């Protein structure tokens, strides 16, 4: 009987380990996380709740502040990630292209600075000035917003469209299909999605796999 109890305990422990599946790579490689906390979040068609987060200028920013916006390009990004750095100029271009058409970029840094000091608030201010960000660069203090969206990478994009007082998720995923070289991009996911919304059409590619660094969470 004693041996049977030991065997059952071992089996239960083994099942517990199987329930947690994660591939842990460094920040230079794509990472897929399959834990329940990582895969929860919005799906296309869901209503995204508003937030109030601190910008690099010290002001608090909410989606409701943008009265004339038709929607938003919400991008979870950060300072340190090589993928995020590769996309910075393209994120600026997206904001410059679509802000005046009603779809401004709202960038949010979801990382815990205690885990990744390069993503601290002071470092965010310096990076925004260095790159000349034309959009809000907000800090997700307490890491409360990114789990609601279901973001797992930097960068990870959520295109929202205003429908009355609601912000409805219309696209989730990557910015385009080549993080390394903008000259080799053949699929402009975010750009095509917003252009389709401006024409009141239906987005063909509503969800893609976000490629980037894992969001840094304090253990």
């Amino acid at each position: 009987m004693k041996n049977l109890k030991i065997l059952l305990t071992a089996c239960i422990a083994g099942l517990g380990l199987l329930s947690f599946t994660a591939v842990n790579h460094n920040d230079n490689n794509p990472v897929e996380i399959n834990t329940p906390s990582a895969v929860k979040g919005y799906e296309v068609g869901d209503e995204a709740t508003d937030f109030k987060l601190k910008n690099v200028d010290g002001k608090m920013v909410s989606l409701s502040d943008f009265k004339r916006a038709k929607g938003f390009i919400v991008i979870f990004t950060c300072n340190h990630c090589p993928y995020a750095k590769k996309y910075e100029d393209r994120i600026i271009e997206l904001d410059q292209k679509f802000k005046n058409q009603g779809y401004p970029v709202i960038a949010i840094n979801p990382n815990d600075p205690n885990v990744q000091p390069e993503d601290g608030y002071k470092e965010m201010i310096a990076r925004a000035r260095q790159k000349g960000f034309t959009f809000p660069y907000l800090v997700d203090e307490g890491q409360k917003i990114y789990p609601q969206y279901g973001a797992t990478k930097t960068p990870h994009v959520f295109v929202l469209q205003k429908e009355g007082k609601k912000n409805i998720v219309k696209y989730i995923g990557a910015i385009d299909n080549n993080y390394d070289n903008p000259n080799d991009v053949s699929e402009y996911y975010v750009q095509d999605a917003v252009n389709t919304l401006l024409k009141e059409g239906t987005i063909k590619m509503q969800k893609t796999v976000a490629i980037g660094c894992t969001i840094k969470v304090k253990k």
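Strands lie at 47-48, 53-55, 60-61, 71-76, 105-109, 137-139, 153-154, 156-163, 166-173, 213-214. The longest strand covers residues 156-163.
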